[in-house]
Design a protein that fits this description.
Number of strands: 0
Order of helices and strands: HHHHH
CATH superfamily: Tetratricopeptide repeat domain
Strand content: under 5%
Length: about 80
Amino acid sequence: MLQNAVKIAPKSAPCHEKLGRALEGSGHAVGGAKELEIAVQLDPTNSAMHFELGRAYRKRVNRKKLAQSLLRAKRLNKEKERK
């Protein structure tokens, strides 16, 4: 159903995020990370999506991308706190 949601709304960051998390949860880490990357591209200011992407990178043992995603999530949260 989530794959259909992405087909219907390909520019919906939440649809890609949910599909990415579902793929990860079912053992498809590479596909999950790709969907989360799309979600972050569609909504680059969403710290939760950057955090989820960081978790996906951690599962794939991509330390450089993990650090980048978590740092971006932290910066976005600080920006939100200032507002």
